[in-house]
């Protein structure tokens, strides 16, 4: 293993799960706040079976990449 963790440096990680269908300013605010508190922020795009989606998972991932 290479990188900071192999050198004994603690890497603080956060996960922001959600359907993000569509991504909103509220979502972006939470992701932005997390990025100030953690070294790495993972945005997990989920599927909400109880909702009819507006965008496919791939489209939502691309939208998130464009705005973050």
Short structural description:
The chain has 68 residues and is an alpha+beta fold. The protein has a single domain, classed as HUPs (Rossmann fold, 3-Layer(aba) Sandwich).
Shape: elongated
Total domains: 1
Order of helices and strands: EHEH
Q: Assign the CATH class.
A: Alpha Beta
Overview of the structural elements:
The protein is an alpha+beta fold and 68 residues long. The chain has one domain: Rossmann fold. The chain is built from two helices and two strands, in the order βαβα. The chain has a two-stranded parallel sheet. Helix 1 links the parallel strand 1 and strand 2. The radius of gyration is 14 Å and the shape is elongated.
Write the layout of secondary structure elements.
Elements: E1 13-18, H1 25-37, E2 40-45, H2 57-67
Parallel strand pairs: 1-2
What keywords describe this structure?
alpha+beta, Rossmann fold, two-stranded parallel ribbon, 2 strands, 35% helix
């Amino acid at each position: 293993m290479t990188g900071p963790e192999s050198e004994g440096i603690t890497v603080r990680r956060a996960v922001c799960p959600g359907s993000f269908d569509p991504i909103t300013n509220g979502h972006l605010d939470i992701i932005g706040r997390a990025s100030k508190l953690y070294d790495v922020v993972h945005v997990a795009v989920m599927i909400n079976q109880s909702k009819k989606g507006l965008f496919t998972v791939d489209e939502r991932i691309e939208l998130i990449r464009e705005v973050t």
